[in-house]
Amino acid sequence: MHAESLWDCEENARLLGVNAAPASPETLARIAILRDDPMETPEVRAAARTRLLDPSSLRQA
Questions:
Q1: Dihedral sign, CA of 38, 6, 48, 12?
Q2: Which of 20, 29, 41, 54 keeps 20 to 30 A from 8, CA to CA?
Q3: Residue 44: exposure state from Cβ atoms within 10 A (0-12, 13-18, ≥19)
Q4: Residues 6+ apart with CB under 8 A from 58
Q5: CB-side exposure of 13: number of CA atoms within 13 Å?
Q6: pLDDT at residue 60 above 70?
Q7: pLDDT tens-digit readout, 13-53
Q8: Please, which residues bridge with residue 14 across strands?
Q9: What's the maximum distance between 2 C-alpha atoms anywhere in the chain?
Q10: Which letter does DSSP use for residue 58 in this model?
Q11: What pTM does this model have?
């Protein structure tokens, strides 16, 4: 459920996904895309950057 939120059109859903999606190669790749997307909101980009910088959040689910 949370992983699907990474592709949602709503910012709040994407924020939830960034913070709660299990760490799989697919979700981490999507979070990296959100982090680097200049069209993404600053809040989502910041959350994605924080998630990818936190080693404890990168463990496989």
A1: positive
A2: 54
A3: buried
A4: 23, 28, 52
A5: 9
A6: no
A7: 999 999 999 999 999 999 999 999 999 999 999 999 999 99
A8: none
A9: 29
A10: G
A11: 0.89
Contacts of 24 (CB under 8 A, 6+ apart): 3, 60, 61
Q: Please tell me the distance from the alpha carbon of residue 34 to that of residue 48, in angstroms, as a whole number.
A: 7
- Terminal alpha carbon distance of the chain: 13
Q: Structure tokens of 6? A: 């990474």
Of 11, 3, 54, nearest to 29 by C-alpha is: 3
Q: Token pair of 33, please? A: 């895309």
**Exposure on the CB side of residue 15, measured as CA atoms within 13 A:** 9
Amino acid 10 reads E
